[in-house]
Structures are given as C-alpha cells and as structure tokens.
Amino acid sequence: MKYLQLSFLMLLLPLFSNCKKGGGNDPGSAAITPTNLVVAAVVATDNSGNVAFTASANNAATYDYDFGNGNYQTVPSGVVNYKYPVSGTYTVTVVAKSKGGQTLSKSVEVVVTISTAVLWSDEFNTDGAPDAAKWGYDLGTGDNGWGNSELEYYTSRADNVYISNGTLKIVLKKESYSGSAYTSARLLSRGKFSFKYGKLEIRAKLTSGGGTWPALWLLGDNFSTAGWPACGEIDMMEYKGNDVNKIFGTLHYPGHSGGGGVGSSLVIANAATEFHRYALDWSPASIKIMVDDVVFYTFANSSSTPFNQNFFVILNLAMGGTFGGAVDPGVSNAVMEIDYVRVTQ
C-alpha cells in the first residue's frame, strides 16, 4: 500500500512542477505598460497664468510633467497646478510611468494669457536729481573693480545727471576731475529694486561722437558674493559712437565673459537723434532683446544659467575703453536722454 501511495505522489510531482513554471504568466509579475492616458488642462480665466492639469492612465504609478518652458515636475497623483510666469503657447508633455518603468506619453497645447502690470517704473517727470528711493550711483573710476579701461570719472553731481522737461539726462563732460579726463554718471537700482522675469522697457535717445559708450543693462543681485561673470550680466543695449546706429545686445555668464559674450546686433535709424524703445523680454525659457518691438537676439534660458534670479538695472554713459574704442578729442559734451524705465510682469 505504501508503494502505491508513493507511486501516486511521484505521478503528481511533475504536475506541481509544471504549475510552478507556469507561474510566470501571472499578470502581477509581468511588466505592464500604462494605457489610456488622458491629459486635461484648465486655464484660469483671471489671466493669472494658473493652469490646472489632470492626468490619468491605467497601470500608471507616477506622471512626469514637462510644462513646455524648461520646467519639470513628477506628480504621483497626476493632478497639479502650475503658474506660468509669462503669456505664451506651451506644449505640455506628460509621461505616465508604471511601477516597472514602462511609459506612455501624451502632449497637449495650452494658451496662456497673463495680464501685465507695471511692477516698477520711473517716468522722470520731476525736475532735479533722480529719485533717491529708486536710484543709487557707482562713483569713481574703473579702478573700483567694475571698469573696462574707460576714461571717465563717475559722479552724482547735477553737472552729470539731472531730470528736466520729462527726461533723465546723463551727461558726459570733457574736464579734468580727480585724475580723469572726463566725467559722467552711472545710476543703478541695486539695493532699491530688482526683479526676476518680465519685461524691461527703456525709451532713450543715445549719443554721438567717437568713443561715447551709452549702456542700458542688468546685473545679478548676487554680484557682491558670486562675483562676475557668475552673477550674470544682461546688456540690453550697448552703443558706441564709433559705430553709428548699430545696437548691441549681449549676455555674459561663466564661459562667456569679456569678448566671449553671446548676442547679436541691429542697425536702426537715428539712434543718436531720436528716441527708441529698447526692451528685454525675460522668462525661464528665453531672453529676448529688442528695439521698437523688433527682436534681434533670443537666448535659450535654462536652469544651468545664472539668469533665473533677481537682477538690478544700470544706466550709464562711458567714454572709450574696451568697447567704446578710439576717442574723438573734439567731443567735449555728450548726453544720453531717457524718457522712462518700466518693468512689467
């Protein structure tokens, strides 16, 4: 009897063995790809830039969002609210990922319109000295660590900077002053106002004369700690009297300092005799530099650059130096006029 029982068990053993081998067909142990991915986007009607996203898919454990502007986020639930900083049309891609790592993706397009508001401005409507609540000064020469072999001595005197008839005047004068052959002014909003992202527009009339070098530009708030070029520099407008009517837009950052800055130029008419609107449109995705709404340089911004922090504004008029070049000795006086400075977001 024992022999028969043993024989019967030996006959059943292969059956159990086959059942074990077949266990690999169990859906719970196989890699499963997500299916039926649905992505919905609801744009807020208050023009705030807020968009409510909902993603769902069968067999998905997490959802990776690419918001179409260089920003990404992993969302386990698939539900997320995101605020766009600037208006635009964005292609949003969602990747549904299973526990096993299999993926399924889908893209949707969202159109975001943001109501812009003036964040900060100076209209220069009050005669006299510039508003001390908005502007400070760099004083002295490039020996202070921020020069480019220029010839001027920067002051805050009324001889070099004042407001009259609705415009700010920055005046370059040929005169002997504290060891320099010229005087001028360099205003900056450092410690009083800075911003991250938005549009900066400055309406200005530039200078004439060989060696003159007016500039409208920005530096990162961390300039004193990080140093240059780690802090980043955005030259929204540079001009030299030796290259009439040619406007330069340039960015400097690590690997692109000095003459290695990246940018472009645009030739316009009457730069020294008429007012033009010089502007910067800045977002996490790009930096666009323009004159009278004509974009002549676009920089692809990303998290690897220093252009994702607060920057302050600088207005100055230099003479000679590495950019201004050869000086015409006949130039005794030059003026850059600024109608307004406006930052909108």
Would you give an account of this structure?
Strands 8, 10, 11, 12, 13, 15, 20, 21, 22 and 24 form a 10-stranded mixed beta sheet that branches. The chain has a 7-stranded antiparallel beta sheet with strand order 9-14-23-16-17-18-19. The chain has 2 domains: 29-112, Immunoglobulins (Immunoglobulin-like); 118-344, Jelly Rolls (Sandwich). The chain has helices at 2-21, 223-226, 321-324, and strands at residues 35-43, 50-58, 62-66, 72-75, 79-83, 88-97, 103-112, 118-122, 136-137, 152-154, 161-164, 167-177, 180-184, 186-188, 198-205, 212-220, 233-238, 246-252, 262-267, 276-282, 286-291, 294-300, 311-319, 333-344. The chain has 345 residues and is mainly β. A hairpin with a 6-residue loop joins strand 1 (35-43) and strand 2. 8% of the residues lie in helices and 47% in strands.
CATH fold assignment of the largest domain: Jelly Rolls
**H/E series:** HEEEEEEEEEEEEEEEEHEEEEEEEHE
N-end to C-end Cα span: 93 Å
Q: Report the portion of residues in β strands.
A: over 45%
Number of strands: 24
In short:
The chain is mainly beta.
Per-chain topology:
Elements: H1 2-21, E1 35-43, E2 50-58, E3 62-66, E4 72-75, E5 79-83, E6 88-97, E7 103-112, E8 118-122, E9 136-137, E10 152-154, E11 161-164, E12 167-177, E13 180-184, E14 186-188, E15 198-205, E16 212-220, H2 223-226, E17 233-238, E18 246-252, E19 262-267, E20 276-282, E21 286-291, E22 294-300, E23 311-319, H3 321-324, E24 333-344
Parallel strand pairs: 10-13
Antiparallel strand pairs: 1-2, 2-5, 3-4, 3-6, 6-7, 8-24, 9-14, 11-12, 12-13, 12-24, 14-23, 15-20, 15-24, 16-17, 16-23, 17-18, 18-19, 20-21, 21-22
